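Tutorial handout. Part one gives the primary structure; part two gives the three-dimensional structure as tokens.
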Amino acid sequence: MSCVQLNTTPVVCRRSVRNTSAIKRAACRHCSIRCESKTIDESCVVVNDRQTSQTSRRSLLGLSAAAIGTTAAPKPSFAALFGGKNNLQAAFEAAMKVQDDPVALEAAWTECIRIAPNNAALYGNRGTVRLGLKRFQEAFEDLEKARDLERAAYGYASGFTMVALGNARGALGDWESALEDFDAAQEDEYPGVKALAMSSTALAKFELKQDTEAVSVAKSVLEEAPDYQDIQAALAGLLWAAGDKKGAQTNSDAIGGNDVLQNFVTIEQDTFGWPPRTIAAVNAYLSESSTGSAIGYDGVSTTYTF
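Part two.
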């Protein structure tokens, strides 16, 4: 049997509390991967990734674009990519070259899917990119397909797939079902998935106005992952909405202060990394107001009262 072995390292967009210039909008939602070496064998592609530590919620979702259906799941650690081996390899490498251009990247994954139409990883990749392009219905359909293919092949879907699917559901307005996806994601023992799923749960609950539960879950994430800056930044808004001004300030200070928090919320609004009500709550905190605004998934700005 012959394989193309791609040893890859995800380039994870981690934020620095002290260096806001490290926050790069283009890289944050869809982290690229770098192919370090390859050896050609016969009819499959094996992707081995080494995850870095202290990844953020959006970074982990970006990481899923490199790993969904392959090493995003504890086992098996490979996915057979059916179709013309040489054509698929060329299409995959073309995708790697356009990581910073989401429109071109979406087209590249579409070409990969044309060659290998039954591979979960490729649908997961394209679905994740489509989330960033705000093509939420198409993203949902891709991620649902990735989930179904993973379950058929492995007996379960990876946590990365389930979190991305939940985010797509939420963008379409079904946060209750999204919570079920996030719960399912927590069954995946792959490093970082539980914190990712729990943080997504916290933000979904806040979107559903289950504010007390949202704060509790967010705090639980930080107990398990104290360096999880994305949820710490969001928690500043959640606590402000709950009337805990001191707690909001403490969490803002923990990530470097209000200037850093402003950078967070700007990027989260641009990428819809947080749901609208969370963005509005952080904006309310930053303006020391009982109201805050955010642009929704429909492109319309809404003002929330806390």
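Part three, for discussion. Residues 1-55, 63-83 have pLDDT under 50 and may be disordered. The two ends are 61 Å apart (CA to CA).
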